[in-house]
Here is the input.
Amino acid sequence: MKNVVLFFLIIFNAISINTFANIYDEQIFIKGKIIDKKTKEPLAFVNIGIEGIVGTTTDYDGTFAITLDIKYADAILNISYVGYEKNFLPIKKFKNKTDVIIELIPKDFKIEEVNVVAKSLYPYTILKNVSNNLSINCLQNSYNYIFDYSAKEYTGVKLLKTRQINVNYYDNLGYLRSTQEEAYKNLGYNFTSSTKDFKPSSIAEGFVNIEEILKSDILKFTGNILDAEQNKDYDLILKDSFYDKDSVWIIYYTCKTPAIQNTNDIFAKTYKGEIMIRKANFSVITNKIEVTASSLSCMGRSFYYDNSKTDYKTENVKYTVTTDYQQQDAITYLKSIASEVTYDMMNNDSKKTEKKKFIETVVIKELKINNLDKITTKQYLDF
Here is the structure.
């Protein structure tokens, strides 16, 4: 009996091994890297595949991996990249290899064509280096900001309300690029002084959402141009320039499909901006965004407005936010944020429309990294 059982086990194992071998034989796996033949630098976002059938792109490090059905064993992979000669990879020759190196040859362009190529490719690599150098350029431990917050509300050209607050802000996480939820869990702030020219008549008027304007600190918070996984969502144009005797890059960007994950605004219709970067260390000097939206968002609002109200409707929303950075002992940190939001507010009953404008600013007065005031709560109301 034991011999019979043993016989069937041997047969079963043989069938299983053969089955897995057949499955493996039905697929082709190729993994490798695509580089510039002259510089040996990796090339990001290179297209590689069988045209019209299957394909992939390289990541920031120039690496790729592609799995193909065995029926394509005699096919050729097309490799194309703007600014480079096309290359072709015989699949059969490189079947199941994981160390393939493919070199692309730059095209011999006229000067005008070279400029187009530079604009389309190199800025993605620059932004990647900015993200990679955040741990070097920015604080990775807890700190305090002491800053002044100011807000003005207009109806038409008439100034209705002003508010100024001195804020003590604590960040336990530092400039570690984590999820926004994690970032907000690790910050706290309170108001050390406040002046305003109106008396809040409700909780809504006393509400000050400091966190929303601080969301424009793109080095700290996600959902912006520095998110590597979302760079493909943007069209980029690169310009060389100088700023305060520093050699800099300016990258102009336009979001192709604005959404909350890449703009931090669920209502955004258009989203564009420009970011200035030091060439010496890939640190950010300034970032400016310009947005149009279908409805009022929380970005940059000075005084609380409940967008769920049924008696009012907001339209023609536009806002600009400029975030500036400074350096202290080779550390980049926030200098200021300036936000301006304009929109039309229509009364659904009377159909009367008022033009509204909010202006907010944050100006950092002091950065503290020692003897910290560890604030664990958030002060939302200012009465």
In short: The two ends are 88 Å apart (CA to CA). The domain at 2-108 is CATH 2.60.40.1120 (Immunoglobulin-like). Helices lie at 2-25, 111-132, 134-137, 180-185, 203-206, 210-214, 260-263. The CA atoms of residues 17 and 133 lie 48 Å apart.
